[in-house]
């Protein structure tokens, strides 16, 4: 048996620490990330695994600003005010600066990771030149996994910027020769086509069923990204087909406890389709692989576990979202999504319609963490909160050891239901059945004859504060009036962020 097959149930994040290749620092400039394989022994096929792990590491290593830029412009969330990133606050009000470092960081780092993905795929091809049939087949699977990660990154950057580059290799000099940018529609079609190529080569299982790379990409991850790309294209039959195949597999289930889904008990649950994985390796000190969750946390709290660090207060659920949830009679989804302060509760109660609030709306979470008043915001995001009593003893960083969910089964069900209401057909289940599965977990009554508007509202309730899903739904559905709230005015020309000035300087096509 080959050496790379002997690895028994490794964690991807553990491999990041063990693999020298996977632990290289992210490159500052995409054009620098060309052939770094000098001296590599391509006859040793175990290196294919390290190449794949390196691509995962690049994909998981998101700067703290990247998810915030992708997600802050929706009506579900506000940027924290009075912070040291005023241009980020202005972005939330649809006032953009192409000179803002965060705008450039998102572009630069995603493309660095896309180029890293190409480099990894090219390395695996070189290993395959010396491999057995078994090793070639495994290499093809790894390449397919990396194609899926690359596809998700291109999907997200196109959502944010619209027309963007589609790198086809690790040679970034080729991008200088591009005379016209691929349109957003062309990017989404490319992503969909890439998923079609990857699907036959990927394991037919849930990510948490994988024993070689726990939580890694599977066929269903690729199907989910194909559905997302086709949703942007408004090709709803393709959405129904892809999501219907995931549903029909019978492999996925909604995690029964919505509150714990976003915390330690929900890590790599049967609902997970694509997560950014992080770990403290069950130890209180030493190696860890982590995301910086502090921007989401309250600036001031009294944790149940003394010494647990607070956050920065950069990201808060909107009053509009909270009132929407109260009007629907939401309980567990509202409690899970929002960390309340006394100041925020008092501000809500100045509206006579919300003077009498349910008892779960308190500044003390069910885990005993007290969210104190702070100047930057009225609330904090509960979906990015890890209770201090779930921190591994010895760890104090806000959210340490918490995974970051990108795609989950609930979204698949709601995408499927919307596709049917947008004219697609499928016999897997009805739109009512799909929506009611999601509502049942939330303790909401079943609907009959569900409408498109009801599905859009269900997505708002279920997916708020998750990667801008609400914002991009409003763009796709052209419901721009929803984004004009609390003094903001949204117009269609504000859909995309501007290309960063440092990238325009490097690639003149961006300025055309």
TrEMBL record:
<keyword id="KW-0732">Signal</keyword>
<feature type="domain" description="SusD-like N-terminal">
    <location>
        <begin position="98"/>
        <end position="206"/>
    </location>
</feature>
<protein>
    <submittedName>
        <fullName>Starch-binding associating with outer membrane</fullName>
    </submittedName>
</protein>
<keyword id="KW-0472">Membrane</keyword>
<dbReference type="Pfam" id="PF07980">
    <property type="entry name" value="SusD_RagB"/>
</dbReference>
<keyword id="KW-0998">Cell outer membrane</keyword>
<dbReference type="InterPro" id="IPR033985">
    <property type="entry name" value="SusD-like_N"/>
</dbReference>
<dbReference type="Pfam" id="PF14322">
    <property type="entry name" value="SusD-like_3"/>
</dbReference>
<dbReference type="InterPro" id="IPR012944">
    <property type="entry name" value="SusD_RagB_dom"/>
</dbReference>
<comment type="similarity">
    <text>Belongs to the SusD family.</text>
</comment>
<feature type="domain" description="RagB/SusD">
    <location>
        <begin position="352"/>
        <end position="484"/>
    </location>
</feature>
<dbReference type="InterPro" id="IPR011990">
    <property type="entry name" value="TPR-like_helical_dom_sf"/>
</dbReference>
């Amino acid at each position: 048996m080959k050496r790379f097959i002997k690895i028994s149930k490794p964690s991807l994040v553990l491999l990041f620490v063990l693999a020298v290749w996977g632990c290289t620092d992210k490159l500052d400039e995409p054009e620098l990330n060309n052939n770094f394989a000098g001296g590599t022994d391509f006859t040793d096929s175990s290196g294919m695994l390290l190449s794949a792990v390196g691509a995962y590491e690049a994909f998981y290593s998101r700067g703290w600003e990247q998810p915030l830029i992708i997600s802050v412009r929706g009506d579900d969330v506000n940027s924290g005010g009075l912070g040291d990133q005023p241009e980020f606050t202005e972005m939330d009000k649809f006032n953009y600066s192409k000179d803002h470092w965060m705008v450039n960081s998102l572009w630069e780092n995603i493309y660095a990771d896309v180029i890293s993905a190409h480099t990894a795929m090219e390395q695996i091809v070189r290993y395959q030149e010396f491999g057995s049939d078994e090793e070639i087949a495994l290499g093809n699977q790894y390449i397919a996994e990396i194609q899926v990660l690359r596809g998700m990154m291109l999907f997200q950057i196109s959502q944010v910027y619209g027309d963007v580059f589609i790198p086809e290799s690790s040679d970034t000099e080729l991008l200088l020769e591009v005379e016209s940018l691929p349109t957003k529609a062309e990017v989404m079609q490319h992503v969909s086509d890439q998923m079609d190529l990857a699907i036959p080569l990927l394991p037919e299982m849930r990510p948490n069923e994988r024993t070689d790379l726990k939580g890694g990409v599977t066929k269903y991850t690729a199907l989910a990204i194909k559905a997302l790309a086709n949703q942007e294209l408004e090709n709803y039959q393709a959405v129904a087909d892809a999501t219907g195949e995931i549903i029909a597999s019978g492999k996925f289930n909604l995690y029964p406890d919505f509150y714990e889904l976003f915390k330690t008990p929900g890590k790599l649950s049967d609902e997970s389709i694509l997560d950014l994985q992080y770990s403290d390796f069950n130890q209180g000190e030493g190696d860890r692989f982590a995301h910086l969750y502090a921007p989401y946390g309250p600036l001031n709290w009294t944790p149940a576990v003394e010494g647990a660090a607070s956050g920065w207060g950069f990201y808060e659920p909107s009053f509009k979202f909270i009132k929407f949830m109260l009007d629907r009679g939401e309980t567990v989804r509202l409690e899970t999504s929002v960390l309340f302060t006394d100041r925020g509760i008092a501000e809500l109660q100045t509206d006579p319609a919300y003077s009498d609030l349910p008892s779960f709306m308190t500044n003390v979470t069910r885990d005993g963490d007290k969210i104190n008043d702070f100047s930057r915001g009225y609330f904090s995001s509960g979906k990015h909160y890890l209770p201090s009593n779930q921190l591994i003893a010895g760890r104090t960083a806000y959210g340490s050891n918490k995974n970051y969910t990108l795609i989950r089964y609930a979204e698949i069900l709601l995408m499927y239901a919307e596709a049917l209401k947008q004219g697609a057909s499928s016999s897997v289940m009805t739109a009512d059945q799909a929506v009611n599965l999601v509502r049942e977990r939330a303790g909401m009554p079943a609907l009959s004859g569900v409408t498109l508007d009801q599905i859009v509202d269900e997505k708002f309730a279920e997916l708020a504060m998750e990667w801008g899903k609400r914002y991009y739904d409003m763009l796709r559905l052209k419901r721009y009036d929803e984004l004009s709230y609390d003094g903001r005015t949204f117009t269609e020309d504000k859909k995309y962020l501007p290309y960063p000035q440092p990238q325009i300087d490097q690639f003149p096509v961006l300025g055309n």
